[in-house]
Design goal:
With 382 residues, this protein is α/β, with parallel strands linked by helices. Helices cover 41% and strands 16% of the residues. The radius of gyration is 21 Å and the shape is globular. The protein starts with 5 loop residues before the first strand and ends with a helix. The structure holds pyridoxal-5'-phosphate.
Length: 382
């Protein structure tokens, strides 16, 4: 651990050596048949992995660009959309829609809770919505939405495109695009896939592709137009804009690791077990999760400080112990910290992280808990 810091913020997540090594390779021409084959394997493999019978897009850019891409290709000026917001990232859709000239109705939950599916259904019945968006895991609150249940309900609204922001979920919380009736799903490489930041992955089902077609020859956006990318996604030999060659390789390696551990279901099981054990340990240490247990994410925990712990001091001491975590957002700034536990981490990571948190709490005056979190964690991981 000397000179190293564990990146336990909710993205980027730790990047294992096998993946890092791909970033260090000599670059290849994007038309090199070896790279074309690798890129094709990534695009097709991702489509299979998430069970999407439409198209998969792999584009340089972050999760936020994917949010914009989803809205750009499914709405036009004057359309009405419904945004189901469980926090900061749900709200980001409102801003994106405003700039697009799309009318956005928002249903917000109290932070830490989810909007009931019945309430979404009621609102959808009131107007004709072009799109409805839900964040699978909102990183600001640590809340996980029941996207499969919502997808079932959406069968009653065949004219509405169902967009799921999977940026803090995909590759951890199990997802199935066709099976869950999702029209557009997206994520970024730096979260549960455990790759460096820089690529977005977006899955568009048949209904979403038909919606883009219905918007006409061109849309106002250029770089994120599905139609610009489709020839490349069908055959990566076709150039539209330079692919991030090394990131594509890094993503390919990450997909191999996912296959090696048995696929997305196995990954969900592994991260769920780890998350429940981590969460038991946090409770033992007096750190209270913001999200209710029934809708708590497995990818991160949003933990409210016990009385008397200063946020800035806690995070800087913890960083000195070798572990980086993130602060709370909006009303929870200074009151909470956010810790990621997704991607390519294992039980040893959990022990190191909990040990560092215990030492930090001890230093800040919360005495008598050394080893308590680690013990709770290990007994659940046994
Ligand atoms: C991180 C995150 C985003 C934004 O992704 P960037 O890669 O930072 O642009 C969007 N939605 C959710 C749920 C996130 O966790």
């Amino acid at each position: 651990m000397f000179n190293e810091k564990l990146v336990m913020i909710p993205g980027p997540t730790p990047v294992v050596k096998e993946i890092r090594d791909e970033m260090a390779r000599e670059v290849q021409a994007f038309g090199d048949p070896r790279f074309v084959a690798d890129f094709k394997a990534v695009i097709d493999g991702l489509g299979k992995m998430l069970n999407c019978s439409g198209k998969t897009f792999v584009v340089a850019g972050t999760g936020t660009l994917a949010m914009e891409m989803a809205i750009a290709n499914s709405t036009k000026r004057g359309d009405r959309v419904l945004i189901v917001s469980h926090g900061f990232f749900g709200d980001r859709f409102v801003d994106i829609c405003k700039r697009k000239g799309v009318e956005a109705d928002v249903i917000r939950s109290e932070w830490g809770r989810i909007v009931p599916v019945s309430q979404i259904e009621e609102q959808l019945s009131r107007h004709r919505y072009a799109v409805m968006t839900v964040t699978h895991v909102d990183t600001s609150t640590g809340v996980c939405a029941p996207i499969a249940e919502i997808g079932e309900m959406m069968r009653k609204f065949p004219d509405t495109i169902y967009i799921v922001d999977g940026v803090c979920a995909t590759g951890a919380e199990f997802e199935d695009v066709d099976g869950m009736n999702v029209d557009i799903l997206f994520t970024g490489t730096q979260k549960a896939f455990g790759v460096c930041p820089g690529l977005l992955m977006l899955w568009a089902g048949k209904k979403a592709l038909a919606r883009r077609d219905a918007l006409g020859e061109t849309i106002p956006e250029y770089y994120c137009d599905f139609h610009k990318w489709l020839p490349t996604m069908d055959d990566p030999f076709n150039y539209f804009a330079t692919p991030a060659v090394n990131l594509v390789w890094a993503l390919k390696k990450s997909m191999e690791l996912i296959e090696r551990e048995g696929g997305l279901k196995a990954r969900d099981v592994r991260m769920r077990k780890n998350a429940l054990a981590m969460q038991a340990a946090f409770e033992e240490l007096g750190l209270k999760a913001l999200a209710e247990p029934c809708s708590r994410a497995i990818t991160l925990s949003n933990l409210i400080y016990p009385e008397g712990i200063d946020d800035a001091r806690f995070r800087s001491e913890l960083s000195g112990e070798g572990v980086m975590v993130a602060g709370g957002l909006a009303a929870y700034a200074g009151k909470m910290f956010r810790i990621g536990h997704m991607g390519n981490i294992d039980v040893n990571t959990g022990v190191v992280v909990l040990g560092a948190i215990e030492r930090t709490l001890e230093k800040l005056g919360q005495k008598g808990k050394l080893g308590a979190g680690v013990a709770a964690y290990l007994s659940k991981m046994a």
